[in-house]
Amino acid sequence: xxxxxxxxxxxxxxxxxxxxxxxxxxxxPEKTDTSEKCIYFGARGFLTDILDxxxxxxxxxxxxxxxxADTVNHYVLSWKRGESPTTEQVDEAVTLLQKEMGLNLxxxxxxxxxxxxxRHLHVVVNRVDPETFRCTEINKGxxxxxxxxxxxxIEHHQGWSREQNGLYQVxxxxxxxxxxxxxxxxxxxxTDGKKVERRTVTLPRGMPSFLSKVCPTGDRQ
Length: 221
Fold this sequence. Notes:
The chain is of the alpha+beta class. The protein has 4 helices and 7 strands.
């Protein structure tokens, strides 16, 4: 397995618009690209199971961190060709990633996509802590390091073949160890790119009070 962090392709995009586009892309990429589809979607840390309301909740919480211009991170976890995780394994992979990144209480949406030869999982995390309303610095700024630890644990727990140049591995005693021979090489993964830049959604009425800051319709800039 590999992990990749997807950079924000358009820094001028507002927080709310980026969140809206990302979540819609993760949940339903086939709406704009028929070659790509989401075969499994999940979300955690929300008050509702309705997608539009989850978008509203993430926007509202992100808005609480007024000093942080960009509060969401987008990661892609990719399995090797021929490896096809079950829905239970996808959920477990997200749990392990959450734990290693210290985001157990945070809002997360994720979708398993099947548009390439490699199954890959898009994970969008809101770094704003729902209790303190402060933006969490994942692993003291070394979030990809934490992601590599999670990858090693996922491979070990689920029996996937290990990447030859993996940064971490689980030893015979079940302990996570760093590999000295690692070379920083990653395989290309199809990501959101520009496809998430032209999406919008109408948000529902009757939201919880803390969502009142969010405009009920798309706020394009």
